[in-house]
Amino acid sequence: VLCPCLIYGAYVFLPFDAPLMPTISARLVYTLRCAAFATFPIVLGMIVSGISRLCSSALEPFGELQREVELHHTYVSQSIHLFILYFFNMAVLATYLPQEVLKLIPLLTGLFAISR
């Protein structure tokens, strides 16, 4: 219930507009640029996963993972899967949205990054 209200409030009250993008290729590049910011939680998860693997007491690097290492590994793999779904959905959405509503692409990217 809270997320649609936040998106609507940001859409109405934030003072930015999407640049003019008349072609589909320009819209896809814009979506790709926005999606680059959505990878930030994945990169942080990879760093934390690497640190937890280094700090674990496992002697074999390719052996069975401990619970806390497995937890970070699961977060990273699920985040990558969700990012792929998110990116394809945003790419399709950007091709169909009218120019006036393209402001939603960075807002939804921010929501994705915050939710991960």
TrEMBL record:
Entry's transmembrane regions: 37-59, 79-97
Tagged with keyword Transmembrane helix: yes
GO (cellular component) term, any one: lysosomal membrane
UniProt KW keywords: Membrane, Transmembrane, Transmembrane helix
UniProt-listed GO biological process terms: regulated exocytosis
Protein name stated in the entry: TMM79 protein
Organism: Centropus unirufus
Gene that this polypeptide is encoded by: Tmem79
